[in-house]
Amino acid sequence: MVVGDFGHDTTVTGSDGHYRASVSQDWEIWGPMGGYVAAVGLRAAAAEVPDGHEPATLTCQFLAAAKFEPVDIEVRVRRQSRRATAVAVHITQDERPVLDAQAWFATPSNVVQYDHTTVHRHGHPDDHPPISAYTSEPSRFRFWENFEGKPLNWIEDLESYLGGEPEWAEWLRFVPTATFDEPILEAARVLLLADLPSYPAAVRAFPRTEAPFISPSLDLAVQFHRLSEAGEWLLVQGVTPIAERGLLGFRSEVWNAAGQLLATGSGQLLGRSVLPS
User: Fold this and answer.
1) Architecture label for domain 6-108+122-273
2) How many helices (H) and strands (E) does the chain have?
3) Spans of all domains in the chain
């Protein structure tokens, strides 16, 4: 089975605020997965910040679905100090806007430190069987081939599923390369996962036969809390608790196997009917 390599597939080339990247079809969900495109933007942003500044936050707007072709990336430093750098990113493809992003980078410091997070209920990755214990069916999308997965709250019979809480969670391990030495790549893989639960959580609110919609992402905001010692297995969990005015709001968290919160995310989806008008 051929899978993508996250480090290779988010590579950017260029300098002085002008970069290029190739959008890989190995990260396909309908089109290129939004968090994957955002990860490309994060790597371009990092190329313009001083050494020692690590990702702190990223907020992006998804302006159009990219094609699986090269993109142009413009990066501008908006503010820079000894502790923090603000960067703006603009990704286009054939002069068509694809993604705008704003990112802060900061130098690590121990000036203040505490952790009052409430640990999730999903234990350790070793507590859960792999997806092969539930199904041998291949995924519809190439995106899922880039991971080893351990699903949580598996629905055995989707056709008789009556709907429930709009929550989704899974332990995931990137393949063929699970971890990276560079903090920017560690942040990029966490960023991708923080975007992941939105639609999978939303569709769980409905019976299988009563979810006739798709929901492209409008935006994504991620706060990076920890980047070192993330480990191979990452838990991504999310909830999409409300859908009103054709908009769906979600929240997400990414945890490591040691029970430490790595990042939190949120965003809004645009619901679109797939039924004939």
Assistant:
1) Beta Barrel (2.40)
2) 4, 16
3) 6-108+122-273
